Amino acid sequence: MSSVTIQRGPKPLGRRLPWAAWVALLPMALTVLFAYLGTMLWTARVSLSFSRTFPSGGFAGVTQYVRLFENDRWIVSLQNIVVYGACFIVACMVIGLLLAIFIDQRVVAEGALRTVFLYPYAMSFVATGLVWQWILNPELGVQQVLHRLGFVHASFDWIVDQDFVIYTLVIATVWQASGLVMALLLAGLRGIDDELWKAARIDGIPRWRVYASIVIPMLGPSMSTAFVLLFVMVVKLYDAVVAMTQGGPGTASEVPAKFIMDYLFGRANIGLASAASIVLLATVLAILAPIFYARSRVALRRDV
């Protein structure tokens, strides 16, 4: 019998890949473990203490949380962030969708328009706040321009009006963030098959009906991503407030992030600031966790 020599090729690298992957993920895992989870646990521990200028070891139970919700300034900040968040997210989603639909019509100079609409998002919130503070200043901005045009009784002093100042923040930040929503939804629109539009034209279905009944539901993943990003912006709102209003007039534009920073650094009450941070974190998790769960369920059904 003739012997057959089997030449063995190089050993597969499959066994080495898991170790390489773990090594590559190790820095990020350590960052998440210590920089994120570690600081959150430390903040929760401080919120249960009598800490003032420096962290202390005394256990105070929920005393700081009771004090927090007895603080009128905190309650006002929560009310403001709810009003701001609702107006900001709805306005950004509507304007971003309309801009995306407009650009999706293959308009002339599409690339330039995309850049113009998305450019404000590249600016910092501090720069945005300072620009809009000047625009809305009753002595320098829109109101003064109207007076010079002959409308001497025109009034646009929202930035110094306690009842309307929160809406000036909405105007400034919607101007900045709508382009991001436009980019996300435009990517979703470009992923829709052209055959859908051809079939709709053959069937004589009005274009608005196609958008309302077919296209917008198909943009669900893009819209949920946009919502999450906008919601994070709402929670993080701080720079624009400091640049535009400093939380005023009075506390009319106070927001939770500014409350936390003021009590952490300005009033040296680290315990109360930590309690406010934990409440804010719990609120974020309570809202975003169901969204991520629903998205994972939808993805699982698609895979099945």
Automatic annotation (TrEMBL):
Domain ABC transmembrane type-1: start-end pairs: 78-291
SUPFAM superfamilies: MetI-like (SSF161098)
Membrane topology: Multi-pass membrane protein
Membrane-spanning ranges: 21-42, 81-103, 115-135, 164-189, 210-235, 270-293
PROSITE patterns reported in the protein's UniProt record: ABC_TM1
Biological source species: Paraburkholderia megapolitana
Claim: Membrane is one of the keywords in the record: yes
Keywords: Cell membrane, Membrane, Transmembrane, Transmembrane helix, Transport
One cellular-component annotation, GO: plasma membrane
Cell compartment(s), UniProt: Cell membrane
Similarity annotation: Belongs to the binding-protein-dependent transport system permease family.
Listed Gene3D superfamilies: MetI-like
Main location: membrane
UniProt-listed GO biological process terms: transmembrane transport
Domain of life from the UniProt record: Bacteria
InterPro entries attached to this UniProt entry: ABC_transporter_permease, MetI-like, MetI-like_sf
Protein name (database record): Carbohydrate ABC transporter membrane protein 1, CUT1 family
Pfam families: BPD_transp_1
